[in-house]
TrEMBL record:
Highest classification ranks of the organism: Bacteria, Bacillati, Actinomycetota, Actinomycetes, Propionibacteriales
Transmembrane segments: none
Short name of one Pfam family: CTP_transf_3
Protein name according to UniProt: Glycosyltransferase family protein
Record-linked Gene3D superfamilies: Spore Coat Polysaccharide Biosynthesis Protein SpsA, Chain A
InterPro entries: Cytidylyl_trans, Nucleotide-diphossugar_trans
Length: 242
């Protein structure tokens, strides 16, 4: 059974253009992200766009020996489906490159749970009911379910955000399962969408070596340094379709 992590990356983000190529601790945010994913022990695939502006992402991934799939900028569902089909995946983990400190060990554990369930219509995530800080999000589902969404999803929000068709259970066949953190830490933002998000991530990496820490250890740092966590606490998460 072929399992793969597909991460979506582009340079044309509206709030902070080229954010994944910004650097902290001498490495790009995308490098930190891919470093963390590879620690899962699972194959990693980069799904980017056909835009020339994303050639730098292709070069970075190629320099690391990672496969790249290029597709539509806005129909991200087709981009994921195409990547899964090209690499003959049976199980897909969806993540996004604005999570430079994502925890590969958490992903590996989630995949073990998914495989043990032996259910092609399971959707397993840690963001159905948010208790994790933003920035550690993952979704696990079968390629069969992804291909079904690719064939039938018609709403713009379903195409752009990949998985709404799945977790809204538009087929009536999906079984949803949420992975929760023991405490509600959803107020923390360890994701990259604004300049203040970047400042927090830069300080976490350069002052606290967060790129070497687990999700639990990063939460401990934020708990112990409330002024640090306050840097981006005012940032409003973009809503689907905006």
């Amino acid at each position: 059974m072929r399992v793969g992590i597909i991460t979506q990356a582009r340079t044309t983000s509206t709030r902070l253009p080229r954010k994944v190529l910004m650097t902290a601790g001498g490495r790009t945010m995308l490098d930190h992200h891919l470093d963390r994913l590879t620690r899962s022990g699972l194959p990693v695939y980069v799904a980017t766009t056909t835009n020339a502006t994303d050639d730098d992402i292709v070069s970075l991934a190629a320099g690391r020996g990672l496969p790249v799939h290029r597709g539509s900028e806005h129909d991200v569902l087709s981009r994921f489906s195409g990547c899964a089909a090209e690499h003959h995946l049976d199980i897909v983990v969806r993540v996004t490159s604005d999570c430079p400190l994502i925890d590969g060990a958490l992903i590996a554990s989630a995949v073990e749970d998914f495989v043990a369930a032996d259910d092609p219509w399971l959707y397993l995530s840690n963001s159905l009911e948010r208790t994790f800080p933003r920035g550690f999000d993952f979704e696990v589902f079968s390629a069969e379910a992804l291909f079904d969404a690719q064939e039938h999803a018609s709403e713009e929000v379903e195409r752009e955000h990949v998985t709404p068709y799945l977790y809204a259970n538009r087929t009536g066949r999906m079984h949803l399962r949420n992975t929760a953190w023991p405490e509600d830490k959803s107020a923390y933002r360890v994701t990259l969408d604004t300049a203040d998000d970047f400042e927090l991530l830069r300080r976490l990496i350069e002052e606290h070596q967060a790129h070497t820490l687990s999700c639990a250890q990063i939460i401990e740092v934020l708990d112990a340094h409330p002024r640090l966590a306050a840097i981006n606490e005012h940032v409003e998460q973009k809503k689907l379709g905006r």
